[in-house]
Amino acid sequence: MAFQSCRLLLAFFLLFSLFVVGEGQYKGFRKFNRVQDDSQKAVFEEQWFTQKLDHFNGADSREWKQRYFVNEAFYRPGGPVFLMIGGEGPANPAWMQNGTWLTYAEKLGALCLMLEHRFYGKSHPTVDLSTDNLHYLSSRQALADLAHFRTMMAEARGLTNRKWVAFGGSYPGSLAAWFRLKYPHLVHASVATSAPVYATVNFPEYLEVVRRSLASENAECPLLVKKASDTLLERLKDPKTYDNITKDFNLCSKLQIQTEMDSAYFLETLAGNFMDVVQYNEDNRGFEGVTGTNITIKVLCGVMGDTSLGEPYARYAAVARLMMDTFFIKCLDASFSTYLRDMTNTSWDGPAAGGGRQWVYQTCTEFGFYQSTDSPNQPFTGFPLAYQVKQCADFYNVSAEQLAEAVAQTNEYYGGYDIRSSRIVLPNGSIDPWHALGITQDITPDLPAVFIKGTAHCANMYPARSEDLPQLALARDHIFLLLQQWLKQ
């Protein structure tokens, strides 16, 4: 979401970011923008900006075309410029017509721009997604893209003296904060929603928040999930159960567990049903074209508590079938070998080119963010950190040592939780597992946090509706007042 993100995906289910989201669950962020709504294109035509391939090598003159969108409907001469930052999926032009940022734009007379992130959507800097070419995919290059776009667009449109405000949610929320941090002369203020600003290889806290979020609906719910997950793990140890498991979870082919990667992938895929729902619980995402917004924590815990379905294991399988029916998935491919094949396909037409191959590369070379079952205070089992880390080696030949060093460099470069800047507001929701890596208390009066009890990932960015919690409406108003105040400075 800026939108883009919001977990690019978990195991590749189908998962966002604000802007869009690609297909599947990619591992890292559950996505914000899941789909691209082609119906919006007639209203907001895609435009193209000539961008540099490598901003940090003056001897490299290679260029490529980066996609962006413009909404001038609210602009008043002298007004600010709002820049929505794209993330780990296609930029969704639905955001040019919907979203809280447009409410702010109308009140403040802002020109609205949205820039797609390099290597996602239609913004293809290189001929393919080979690991060598992915070396040009990083948050640092993306920030330099934003800086160059802002500089050249300001000159071309006579906006050099206008105040620019960056918006983003999830990974793009981090980019919004870091854009203000690293290029303070170019961006006046930022709204960095659900932004995980601290990089970490192991992120077991994600599943701890999932447990608490499920328990907030029903204290028994995470206990039933744990019992089901433990039962499934035990059955995976006995090949005689594989035919029944294949039928219970409607797998595309008979279950085969030949390595620990196979069982971990299967277990993570099933846990992903709960992870995605918790992350986006009751968020108003229908305008994006997102399917399944009617599946909430209440729905999942209702299924898990339904004794008529049988033991907890059977209810867990019922959740999986419910999600498959909701997303029109005929059968579940639980094969890690298929996932490996998809993730190592380097073509722009490949099955993981919607964002999966790219985002997991960024986790392996910058962020980590691996949502492992290494904590005892969560209900799932079977996908430890080692499983996540091995994928970096399998997909990109990145070792565990290189991953750890890359994550340390990211925190060294951006500061982690210790942001030293001004005019950045950092909203987070208590239900959203990503708040564990974000800022939930004010750093300074000029670096305020907005912690919204009972809301999920990027909730404040979505269009308002009558069912919104009072504290969500208040948060949107508070952010607007901050922008109003900062634009006068």
From TrEMBL:
Keyword Cell wall biogenesis/degradation (UniProt): no
Keyword Protease on entry: yes
Signal peptide: 1-24
GO MF: dipeptidyl-peptidase activity; serine-type exopeptidase activity
InterPro entries reported in the protein's UniProt record: AB_hydrolase_fold, Peptidase_S28, Ser_carbopepase_S28_SKS
GO biological process, one term: proteolysis
Keywords associated with the record: Glycoprotein, Hydrolase, Protease, Signal
Annotated family: Belongs to the peptidase S28 family.
Protein name: Serine protease 59, putative
Organism name: Dicentrarchus labrax
